[in-house]
Amino acid sequence: DGSYSVTTNQYGRALSITQRDSGGTQIGQTLFGYDEHGRQKFMTDARNGTTTNFFDVLDRIVATASPAPATGSPSPRTGYRFDTKGQVTIVTNTDNTLVYTDFTSHGSRSKMYGSHTYPVEYTYDYAGRMKTMKTWQDYAGNSGTVITTWNYDGYRGFMTNKVYADGKGPGYIYTPAGRLYQRIWARGTVTTYTTNAAGDVSNIAYSDGTSSAAYFYDRLGRKSTIFDGAGIHSLRYDVFGNLTSETNSSGILAGMAVINSYDNLNRRVATRLNTDTGTIVNYGYDGASRLLSVTNGVNTASYSYVANSPLVSQIEFKQSGNARMTTIKSFDYLNRLTLITNAASGSGSENAAFAYANNSANQRTSITNADGSRWAYSYDALGQVRSGRKYWSDGTPVAGQQFDYTFDDIGNRKTAAGGGDEAGTHQRLQNYTVNNLNQYTQRTVPGYLDILGTATNTSTITVNHASTSRKGNYYRGEVPLANSASALWFSITNVAVLASGTNDYVTNCVDKVFVPGTPEIFRYDADGNMTNDGRWELTWDGENRLTGLRSMTGAPVASSNRLTFAYDAKGRRISKVTETFVSGAWSITLSNRFVYDDWNLLAELNATNNAVINSFMWGLDLSGTMQGAGGVGGPLGITTTNAGTHFVGYDGNGNVAVLVSANSGTATANYEYDPFGNVLRATGPMALLNPFRFSTKYVDDESGFNYYGYRFYNALVGRWLNRDPIGEAGGVNLYCQIVNNPVTRFDPYGLTDWGDVIEGWWDAAWNTFDWATGHSGSTDYGPDSVQSRQMSQSAIAGQLRAAFLKKNKDKLCNDWKGISNVRTRFRVSHEVIVDGFNGTAEFVGRASGDVIAKKDLVNCKINAEFHFMNTTSLKSLLYGKWPESWNVTLPGFPFANWTQFYTWNETFDCNCCHSTGVSGSW
Asked: Quick check: helix, strand or coil at residue 195?
């Protein structure tokens, strides 16, 4: 693409790294300074400022000062203390709180506790394998202890089972070759794995009726055909390994295909669904291969970037060249979002604007809206949201929007208080009961409902014939309920009367709401999947995916629903069927199918004829990539069959805040949420037609559950319906949603949370990364090092190799030429090299390479020297799991300007006399 990076070195040390686009404009620069001992003392980013390291006499970093977030603000400082073995035992956080780590005599972490950290203790067996994990619901009182145990085969060391506090858990059986043969869930479901000669999984079968999955691979080990519950999927790739199509030839999605096109720089330039030309989305790039525009027909979203940074500063939405909405973002020098404004062009539309204040712990303490009202947040010592209270611009509380929470020491909710009057008092309290598996067993449900809304301030509003409190156009009504004996299907009647002489204007709004009986009881199966709450009976398949919801026996008949879901082998929900109970029988009211671009929902189809109901135009999500954050904050537009196209505006956490008509530029939906994602406001004609709301995740209106991909989230109780599929890698409490801080954090897929500070996390975490890896901002691994050889096996290096072979195809030995400045990007979900704190690290980012061709005409060989430069990220630190680097298969996003250099050699056969094909070994 013509962009380039210039590195200046002196005495073998990098002094500066400057990135420029194809026009020569600087898009990033980092300067490095060293002390008299050659240690990297300073690192200055052209936009953010200087990060300073402080060392002890043993050359260990004992403190790091990050750039001041704003002029006149103090620099955040993180400190490290070591034991006699050089292990970090105390970390002083930027808010001057402490995190403690104890180690065994063998150097394994044995205990971690302190600020922003759920206390946890580990033991290990004779071979150094983790044996137990202990947590506390009351750490200070040493009560509510929960122990999880891992058991291993005494001869081969494989894990044979995992045992939770109830004595139950999954078991594993292996083949003589050491491959996983069977997984046995505690409830008895057996999953059997078959592998091919290459060791790849070729078939997965289940004993409970879950659809099996069969996999076929091409010669490069990539999945080419998949047989699963959705039918037959065919995957096709180009010569550079880019996925060009995913075609469904049978089953639920028969005839559907997602087709991708790429330019000669391996950048995706178009995506479409084969059956509907209205789903074609085109992508354009700037001189540094950053996403510049996304176009769907006459609708376009164009990006601008902060100078010397990959951060998005503006998104301009247009239809046929006419401006419809502009999103503007501002950041501090720690790359924390300070302001986001979504301004619609249409007259009478309110701006969806959010100004953020952050504390020294990188927690959001307030959000100020466009009308001057604001949310104020406080946190407990473990970093959990303790309160979220909304105030008017004059400082008085907003009635009905006052929320307080308490938690135990492993993240289980103890109480939740909500509602509140004009003075911010008289909230309604919920009490939670939890077992030793960190499962809620019951909660009390207050016998009141808060009804919130807006109406012209000259009107009189009643709710169920009772008066309401008013503040301008806002009103709040409190409705008493009698839910102590059973659940209710409760009628709500709002009446607005506007006096106009002798003829009053009257608006009457009637709706129904389900209210669980109190206490609401929760039940689970042996594998931790919720089977009952106060409304639903839930069913699960052999992969612990939610397959069905059915109204409980005894629930109000008029509220009865049944939902059925189906999934493909990747775990994506591809079908949803909704039925209601009418005249003694179930009747289908909705049957939809879903087509994805990887994990981003591309289109929602009517199951009757596969006609597109909704299609979605995606851009950069909060990671600054297309899917690095699971699509959170990524949709730019939604097109509905009957309501046209609507552009999407967000708050700073990727929650949908506003929809704006692409035709008129007027707001068609507005949303507001409480701290845990319950919708407080959903107004406008598109409010319920749009399925993406909190955290840009699909919500099922029948249940209120948000579908994240791997799990469903229940905002009412602020947690997941089942255990984390990746286990403790996603957090020690397997049900807890993003350590109870959805104000500052989010979860991309329902597996693990994204660290604080959102879009700017990589710069704020640079110092932790630098300490954990021991690397500076520029690392040269040297010729044929372990790291270079490992990188040579990656897909991105394969693109460089393919370009070299393509250039020299069918050439005689003497005609082979090298290549230079080949630009590419990591395009697969994960790339692994041997490096980092825990032995491996996963990388994404930009890369360029050269190949020097050295001819051996005597032996008819080409000795190729590969030079590879990668500006990339340590993804395993992305989630802030300090000091251990979790290694999870989720795409990440770049830290600031960490550049690595790799060099390796490969030998290729060539023809000294006549033209033929090429082969190689490496």
From this structure: strand
Torsion of CA 848, 288, 830, 722, to 10 degrees: 170
- Model confidence band, residue 848 (pLDDT cutoffs 50, 70, 90): confident
Contacts 24+ apart (CB under 8 A), 82-87: 82/56, 86/58, 86/60
Number of H helices, E strands in the chain: 4, 72
Least confident of 405-409, 592-596, 860-864: 860-864
Residue 481: per-residue pLDDT: 93
Average pLDDT over all residues of the chain: 88
What are the structural domain ranges in the chain? 256-444+519-760, 772-921
29: how many CB neighbours lie within 10 A of its CB?
Answer: 18
Cβ pair 247, 234 in contact under 8 A: yes
Cβ–Cβ < 8 Å for 894, 871: yes
Residue 349 contacts residue 667 (beta carbons within 8 Å): yes
The region, left, alpha or beta by phi > 0 then psi within -120 to 50, assigned to residue 673 is beta
Query: What is the phi/psi pair of residue 71, to 5°?
Result: -60, 130
The C-alpha angle 33, 38, 40, rounded to 5 degrees, equals 40
Nearest alpha carbon to residue 214 among 540, 568, 564, 542: 568
- Closest C-alpha to 621, from 611, 629, 610: 629
Calpha distance 134→146 (Å, rounded): 6
Lowest-pLDDT range of 396-405, 483-492, 505-514, 825-834:
825-834
If 0-12 CB within 10 Å is exposed, 13-18 middle and 19+ buried, where does residue 12 land?
exposed
Task: Tell me: pLDDT of 493 over 80.
Answer: yes
Q: How far is residue 567's CA from residue 547's CA, in Å, rounded to a whole number?
A: 8
* SS3 of residue 803 by DSSP: helix
At 788, which amino acid appears?
Answer: S
Q: Which of 9-13, 74-78, 95-99, 697-701 has the lowest mean pLDDT?
A: 9-13
Give the single-character DSSP code of 771: H
Of 811, 137, 796, 813, residue with least CA distance to 411: 137
Contact 163, 133 (CB under 8 A): no
Residues 30 and 777: their CA atoms lie apart, in Å, by 8
Q: Could you give the 3-state DSSP secondary structure of residue 93?
A: coil
Beta pairing, strands 778-783 & 898-909: parallel
The model's pLDDT over 130-168, given as tens digits with 9 standing for 90+, comes to: 999 999 999 999 999 999 999 999 888 899 999 999 999
Is the domain covering 256-444+519-760 a CATH 2.180.10.10 domain? yes
List, in order, residues 6 or more apart from 825 with CB less than 8 Å away.
266, 267, 289, 796, 844, 845, 846, 847
Is residue 850 classed exposed, middle or buried when 0-12, 13-18 and 19+ CB atoms within 10 A define those classes?
A: middle
pLDDT at 920: 36
Q: What share of the chain is helix, strand, coil (3-state, %, to 5)?
A: 5, 50, 45
Q: Which two tokens stand for residue 762?
A: 């990589």
Residue 594 and residue 601 in contact, taking contact as beta carbons nearer than 8 Å: yes
Whether 225 shows a pLDDT value over 90: the answer reads yes
Residues β-bridged to residue 287: none
- Burial environment of residue 95 by CB neighbours within 10 A (0 to 12, 13 to 18, 19 or more): middle
| pLDDT given at position 62 | 94
Q: What span, in angstroms and rounded, lies between the C-alpha atoms of 423 and 671?
A: 24
Which amino acid makes up residue 273? L
- The predicted model scores a pTM of 0.84
Terminal CA-to-CA distance of the chain, rounded, Å? 28
Identity of the amino acid at 783: P
Tokens of 399: 């009635």
Beta-bridged to residue 466, according to DSSP, are 463
The answer on pLDDT for 646 being more than 60 is yes
CA distance 210 to 230: 12
